[in-house]
Amino acid sequence: MKHIPVIVILVLAVAACNLSEKLRKAGSSNSPSSSSGTSSTGGEAVERPSPTAAQIAALANGQTVKWDQQGITWTLPANWKKEDVRNETFGYGGDGAFLSVNISTMDASFPTDISIKAMHESAKTNEKNGKYDELKWLELDGLRGVEFRESKPEMADDIRRLEWQAYRKYAGQTELVTLILSTNGANFPKHQDQLYGILYSMKIMH
Q1: What are the residue ranges spanned by the domains of the chain?
Q2: 169: Cβ–Cβ under 8 A, 6 or more apart, which residues?
Q3: Superfamily of domain 35-204
């Protein structure tokens, strides 16, 4: 009978090892490639760009701008100018509207699929609370991400943002891509077609 505690300890240790192995395998299954549109979105549809005539017209005679360091390209209005372009940050703007992009490098084992779903759930909460007035899964150039738009701000001069986030595997690294298109609240309706046109024009290596 005095050997029973030892047996119990051994059983618990084996169970803990099995659980650890299951968690490790679950984490490894959340590879960057699985976050690019092949994993579940909880039954919610993943939209793809379908620009309206107004959104296409807003970028007529626009310029093609490439972020060489990150292999990303957009069509931008002809009058937009470079503000700041570095290895992990990109900024262009014009007429009071802006495109800002940030790249965050993650550990190779980072659970991207779990994270992107958590982002979507967080955005759902913000949508219910009135912070966002649009939320969707949006696939751009084959890369699935979360797109959300801030509601009209209380003050006309406050910034209003259209944002898209996604994980990708690029140049051997796991990266979080955060894209923000913005202008102030008063001018957002005027720039809206332009901003969506820019978002939908993105070509991204992954």
Answers
A1: 4-30, 35-204
A2: 31, 32, 33, 175, 206
A3: Mog1/PsbP, alpha/beta/alpha sandwich (3.40.1000.10)
Tokens 């720039």 locate to: 191
pLDDT digits (tens, 9 = 90+) for 53-67: 999 999 999 999 999
The tens digit of pLDDT for each residue in 154-174 reads: 999 999 999 999 999 999 999
Which letter, b or e, does each residue of 71-99 get, where b requires 16 or more Cβ atoms within 10 Å of its Cβ? Answer: ebbbbbbeebeeeeeeeeebbbbbeebbb
In this structure, are strands 132-140 and 143-150 parallel, antiparallel, or unpaired?
Answer: antiparallel
